[in-house]
């Protein structure tokens, strides 16, 4: 009985143990050496590609914020703004006129010129001296409101006038020769 168990046990582990490690070592040594050399060199070139993608995402952010401050400079470039308000009763009216200085320099003395569109005739003026030749009106400051501070300072005057037909507001105004925007 000893021969059966010893004989059967000896031959069976010998042939199984020796062929099994031989084929496993051979194929795994060859393929693992070749592919491991190639992939270690391949990851090097892909590392520069994250750098360019980080650069463009940062560039567009400052561009849109730069145009925002620009429009705030535009309104100060208007030399003057004129507000023209009337109180009309059909054959006559009064007008309240406010001049705003849009420049960075104070005005010391002013002359506002405008043209009526119809047959309006000034009969009286206050806070300024008004003269009229045809449809052209020239108003000069009074002694007490000749200085208009810079950057939005204002001066006002008014007048009474008669008319027949239509009473359209003047289309253009000039202050000391510079065109104004009418409000």
Name a few traits of the molecule:
183 residues, alpha+beta, Immunoglobulin-like, 5-stranded mixed β-sheet, 5-stranded antiparallel β-sheet, 6 helices, 12 strands, globular
Compact description:
With 183 residues, the protein is an alpha+beta fold.
What can you see in these coordinates?
By secondary structure, the chain is of the alpha+beta class. Strand 1 (80-88) and strand 2 form a beta hairpin. It folds into 2 domains: 2-57, no CATH class; 78-182, Immunoglobulin-like, CATH 2.60.40.290. The chain has 6 helices and 12 strands. The chain has helices at residues 2-9, 13-17, 21-41, 50-58, 62-65, 70-73; strands at 80-88, 92-101, 107-108, 111-115, 121-126, 128-133, 136-141, 147-148, 154-162, 173-175, 178-179, 181-182. It has a 5-stranded mixed beta sheet, with no helix packed on it. Strands 6-7-4-10-11 form a 5-stranded antiparallel beta sheet, with no helix packed on it.
What's the layout of helices and strands?
Elements: H1 2-9, H2 13-17, H3 21-41, H4 50-58, H5 62-65, H6 70-73, E1 80-88, E2 92-101, E3 107-108, E4 111-115, E5 121-126, E6 128-133, E7 136-141, E8 147-148, E9 154-162, E10 173-175, E11 178-179, E12 181-182
Parallel strand pairs: 1-12
Antiparallel strand pairs: 1-2, 2-9, 3-8, 4-7, 4-10, 5-9, 6-7, 10-11
